[in-house]
């Protein structure tokens, strides 16, 4: 995707020079292309990171053993490039209880997820 945007940027600049476009118009078009690039980049990054599945069980540094919960635990993440839905593997004692460890959140250094009641 990034390679496809480079010709578009060059086209915007060439057309702007040819037509004598106002700088705010050129800036708006470049911003839109930059947003597409950023969104596509984060999509690709999240895809490569996966769900954070570390196997059936994990052992925390304190020695506590947790099991992988059956269902994915989606989370909304909002960046300057828009909102994303992250499908995450979570670990805990059982479904319905507080999540004890979410490797993807840890890997991405996300802030704590808002509680379902907030």
Comma- or semicolon-separated keywords:
19% strand; 2 domains; 5 strands; elongated
Q: How many structural domains does the protein architecture include?
A: 2
Going across the major beta sheet, what is the strand order? Answer: 1-2-5
How many β strands by DSSP? 5
Shape: elongated
List the helices and strands and how they pair.
Layout: H1 2-19, H2 23-49, E1 57-59, E2 65-68, E3 73-79, E4 82-88, E5 91-92, H3 103-108
Antiparallel strand pairs: 1-2, 2-5, 3-4
Helix pairs in contact: 1-2
General description of the model:
This protein has 118 residues and is an alpha+beta fold. The protein folds into two domains: 1-49; 51-112, no CATH class. Helices cover 43% and strands 19% of the residues. A three-stranded antiparallel beta sheet has the order 1-2-5, with no helix packed on it. A two-stranded antiparallel sheet has the order 3-4. α1 runs antiparallel to α2. The longest helix has 27 residues, at 23-49. It is elongated and about 65 Å long. The two termini are 37 Å apart. The relative contact order is 0.13.
């Amino acid at each position: 995707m990034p390679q496809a945007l480079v010709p578009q940027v060059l086209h915007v600049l060439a057309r702007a020079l040819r037509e004598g476009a106002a700088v705010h118009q050129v800036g708006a078009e470049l911003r839109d292309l930059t947003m597409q690039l950023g969104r596509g980049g984060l999509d690709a990054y999240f895809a490569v990171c996966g769900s954070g599945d570390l196997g059936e069980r994990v052992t925390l540094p304190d020695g506590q053993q947790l099991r992988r919960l059956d269902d994915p635990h989606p989370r909304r993440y909002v960046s300057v490039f828009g909102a994303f839905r992250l499908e995450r593997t979570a670990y805990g004692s059982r479904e319905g209880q507080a999540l004890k460890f979410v490797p993807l959140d840890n890997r991405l250094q996300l802030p704590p997820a808002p509680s379902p009641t907030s």
